[in-house]
Amino acid sequence: MSAVKIFGHQNPDTDTITSAIVAADIESRLGNDAKSFRLGEIGAETKYALEYFGAQAPELLEKLEDGEQVILVDHNEFQQSAENIGNAHILKVLDHHRIANFQTESPLYYRAEPVGCTATILNKVYKENSLEITKEMAGLMISAIISDTLLFKSPTTTEEDIDAAAELKEIAGVDLESYGIEMLKAGASTHDKSAEELITGDAKSFDMGVKTTRIAQINVVDVDEVFERRAEIEDAINKQIDTEGYDLFVLVVTDILKSESKVLSLGKESGAVEKAFDVSLDDNTAVLEGVVSRKKQVVPNITKALS
Amino acid sequence: MSAVKIFGHQNPDTDTITSAIVAADIESRLGNDAKSFRLGEIGAETKYALEYFGAQAPELLEKLEDGEQVILVDHNEFQQSAENIGNAHILKVLDHHRIANFQTESPLYYRAEPVGCTATILNKVYKENSLEITKEMAGLMISAIISDTLLFKSPTTTEEDIDAAAELKEIAGVDLESYGIEMLKAGASTHDKSAEELITGDAKSFDMGVKTTRIAQINVVDVDEVFERRAEIEDAINKQIDTEGYDLFVLVVTDILKSESKVLSLGKESGAVEKAFDVSLDDNTAVLEGVVSRKKQVVPNITKALS
């Protein structure tokens, strides 16, 4: 039997990559043969975290065979997962998202909690199994929590995330604020990215009733840096709408210092954003004050507006 | 805010009823306002267990309003749940089945483990939260474990179920074997039931690809007691196939002492049972040696045969 493959979602972010590494550490320590993988390229923020704590990036998952044993972290929706996931044997899921477009033939271990970050759950799993947490794993979990909660500013942040980060920083030996801002900044530059990269880097598809919605998010420290390139970005989005058949494509450009987002809404359902957030689109854009979380704010509101 | 409603699946069995009661006890002890409900009539086996341990049966759930807060135990598939479950706000799921036809708009607490019984997971939850277990709750959890594992004979039985029952019997003060056989026998008589009751008492629907399959199970100590009434039972099944549009209806009559089942397979896909279990149907019936578990043996095999 080959090692159980552990991976997060497509367009991997810091929580998805580090949670795959950390979950593989937990499985190994429990005596199970497991290996972490990634479904795509690693971003600058995640690279910063991996290098800072001396961790190796997981290998790219090339192909998933029918019946292969897998553990999913930080996602469950099949359209966000590996190709052929529907034919794999899913042993476990460790996640903090809504559940949708997910099914198995057999009973499994599924652990989801409505917390800000998968790493917060993994920290509990270490403790429940009385496993010591290394400095490297603590650092990776902290990085995931900072990334997913935008340094505790996102409304997805829970007391449990804050407590987990406070525990883990002692083991990792870092200052949350200064390490966190450096890590977030490392991922916030858009100059070195093509329009295509910007709209696919952290993008997820959602089936919302009969509509298919694509929501891409970019975290920045300067929103204008993105919107100065609007023509080029809009072309890239419209190309994806044509080829993938999205009914709605929302680009969410989040200012991580101001804790607000400017959105660009395209596609034949672009008006859904007005209903979803009670705003008027101006040339297909709107500023959404206080909106920083795709999961907790953008997806539920658009889902309701489309249903 | 009204109390969170906790309930198991339609056609409630002992695990579903007792897990709703036990989960409500846990929530209350954690300071949350919660109340157990049932989605149908309580069977003789469950009645025996409730009376033995002096527990009250949950109220029948009459109606679920849009947006009501609920906790599901012992199931997740919407077609096995309350009407209007798709519009409820599901806070938690505690279950031990495959996941399918389940989705939420928001993140939630979901805990599934591939163990034989929901009660085995609830026993862990008590311990993780350092809550003392009363004699009544221990007795209900033991009853659920015995019922779902057919006194540890079902292949769904795990070490964890056996360990949980061993712990709980000390608190409940019963002998597992003698209490278990009396409880199972209390639910195994078919004389007092109409054909309609026999095929609906413990029946679940499953979407299997494009086919809809209904699988009803009866636990007995004498298989012939059921098949002597075959004509009447077959009429009742065919009526349901007509009105509900099932592609396949499998009645699984399980001999709890011999640990085998005789099935009656009807509907336009009745042949699927031959492929599923590598048997030949004789007049639409077959004896399946060693098959006692719908979840672990019947559903996966028929799902594969139909896909």
TrEMBL record, chains A, B:
Binds 2 manganese ions per subunit. Gene3D superfamilies: DHHA2 domain (3.10.310.20), inorganic pyrophosphatase (n-terminal core) (3.90.1640.10). The keyword Metal-binding applies. One of its GO terms (molecular function) is manganese ion binding. Keywords: Cytoplasm, Hydrolase, Manganese, Metal-binding. Its cofactor is Mn(2+). SUPFAM superfamilies: DHH phosphoesterases (SSF64182). Mn(2+) 2 binds at residues 15, 74, 96, 148. Mn(2+) 1 binds at residues 9, 13, 74. It is found in: Cytoplasm. The keyword Cytoplasm applies. Its main location: cytoplasm. It is an enzyme of class 3 (hydrolase). SMART domains: DHHA2 (SM01131). Its EC number is 3.6.1.1. It catalyses: diphosphate + H2O = 2 phosphate + H(+). Belongs to the PPase class C family. NCBIfam families: PRK05427.1 (NF003877). This is Probable manganese-dependent inorganic pyrophosphatase.
